[in-house]
């Protein structure tokens, strides 16, 4: 166990994961607000009010990040338009696909593979996975944030037993976890040049899912209870918190690929080539 952990740390250093994660974070940060605008614009066509969304978002976001998007949520709900949706989609495709191409670069580096596919093919793959990830995020938000509301509606309209709520809570969290594992597994299965079976990518997908959930919850708890970035950084405190959270997310995704690559090399009885020293 210690030996494998030592190898993983060595691989992280050799592949310069922290620098790649910073590159991914940059594009994810650029895509965050187009995605937020798109999601809120879609919710604007529903019966939900801005206050309903704000109440639930305040429960899952660090306070400084919540303050950052507070005005945006209200403005989008009051001024929903087709032009805003179109601009959000265009911005999301450009920035999101760039972020995924950086992830592909990191996964290829983990397996010591050179990119042999055309730029157009990698662009299409990036866009497809960006859309897939956004769908999973929207579904996760709907199930986790609005899960109780959805469960209450089902009980009221279909006159289901009150015991259904307990089962519904278990089901919605299991579905959310399964969806996240699936999208991470698909990411590690399809995006790098090296092809692995679904069974071979499951360790990294499971690691990324659990790692992202635990790190996000831990980071949100730390920010809300032990640190006040707004008092240190002023008005940009929310941006700093958002950047740190996206950076942690990027590292977790790339670490999942490194875990799969480490296991693949161990199965083949090979070591990843070391960088040459001059």
Automatic annotation (TrEMBL):
Keyword field contains Hydrolase: no
Descriptive protein name: Uncharacterized protein
UniProt organism field: Clostridium tagluense
Domain of life assignment: Bacteria
Subcellular location: Cell membrane
Keywords attached to this entry: Cell membrane, Membrane, Transmembrane, Transmembrane helix
GO cellular component: plasma membrane
Pfam short name (any one): Virul_fac_BrkB
Keyword GTP-binding recorded: no
Membrane spanning stretches: 20-45, 84-104, 125-150, 170-190, 202-223, 235-257
Predominant place of localization: membrane
Topology of this chain in the membrane: Multi-pass membrane protein
């Amino acid at each position: 166990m210690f030996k494998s952990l030592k190898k993983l740390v060595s691989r992280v250093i050799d592949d310069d994961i922290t620098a790649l994660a910073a590159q991914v974070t940059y594009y994810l940060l650029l895509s965050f607000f187009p995605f937020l605008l798109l999601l809120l614009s879609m919710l604007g066509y529903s019966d939900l009010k801005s206050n309903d969304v704000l109440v639930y978002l305040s429960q899952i976001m660090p306070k400084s990040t919540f303050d950052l998007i507070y005005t945006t949520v209200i403005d989008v709900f009051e001024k929903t338009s087709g032009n805003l949706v179109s601009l959000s989609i265009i911005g999301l495709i450009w920035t999101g696909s760039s972020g995924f191409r950086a992830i592909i670069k990191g996964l290829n580096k983990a397996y010591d593979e050179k990119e042999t596919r055309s730029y157009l093919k990698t662009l299409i793959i990036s866009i497809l996975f960006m859309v897939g990830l956004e769908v999973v995020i929207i579904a996760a938000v709907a199930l986790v944030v609005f899960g109780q509301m959805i469960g209450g509606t089902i009980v009221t309209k279909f006159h289901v037993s009150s015991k259904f709520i307990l089962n519904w809570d278990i089901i919605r969290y299991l579905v959310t976890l399964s969806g996240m594992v699936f999208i991470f597994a698909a990411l590690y299965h399809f995006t790098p040049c090296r092809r692995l079976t679904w069974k071979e990518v499951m360790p990294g997908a499971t690691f990324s899912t659990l790692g992202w959930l635990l790190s996000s919850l831990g980071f949100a708890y730390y920010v809300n209870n032990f640190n006040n970035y707004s008092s240190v950084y002023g008005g940009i405190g929310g941006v700093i918190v958002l950047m740190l959270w996206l950076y942690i997310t990027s590292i977790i995704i790339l670490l999942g690929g490194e875990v799969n690559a480490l296991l693949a090399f161990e199965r083949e009885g090979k070591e990843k080539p070391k960088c040459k020293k001059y």
